Amino acid sequence: KLAKVSGNKKVSMIPQKDLEKTTGYIHGANNPVGIRQKHNYPIFIDQTALNLDQMIVSAGEVGHSIIIRPQDLANFVKADFADILEENN
């Protein structure tokens, strides 16, 4: 679903061994704000987040998180809401 929404043939997670080199963040510290500011990668949030009053996302350091309204996060990082939730069979 994410590949289709993002206009790609396929998408996958960055291999953990390449994570810091690619994003600048270690495992557990990746965050949408830093990713958008450092790389301007497109960010997609599943549309079910719109049903939440707040969500928790990484604050950019292992063990640190922030609580934020989904729409506020989307506005700040220029994210799009889309149907990207993978169904469990």
Tell me about this structure.
The protein has 89 residues and is of the alpha+beta class. The protein has helices spanning 2-6, 19-23, 32-39, 70-77; strands at residues 44-46, 55-58, 65-68, 80-82. The mean pLDDT is 90.
Question: Would you identify the regions where 5 or more consecutive residues have pLDDT less than 50?
Answer: none
Sequence of secondary-structure elements: HHHEEEHE
Radius of gyration based on Cα positions? 13 Å
* Global geometry: globular
What portion of the residues fall into strands of 2 or more residues?
15-25%
Gap between N and C termini: 15 Å
Lateral strand order in the biggest sheet: 1-4
Number of helices: 4
Average pLDDT over all residues: 90
Query: Which percent range fits the helix content?
Result: 25-40%
Strand-helix topology:
Blueprint: H1 2-6, H2 19-23, H3 32-39, E1 44-46, E2 55-58, E3 65-68, H4 70-77, E4 80-82
Parallel strand pairs: 1-4
Antiparallel strand pairs: 2-3
Short description:
With 89 residues, the protein is an alpha+beta fold. Helices cover 29% and strands 16% of the residues. It has helices at residues 2-6, 19-23, 32-39, 70-77, and strands at residues 44-46, 55-58, 65-68, 80-82.
Task: Please give a handful of descriptors for the protein shown.
two-stranded parallel ribbon, 4 helices, 29% helix, alpha+beta, 89 residues, single chain, two-stranded antiparallel ribbon
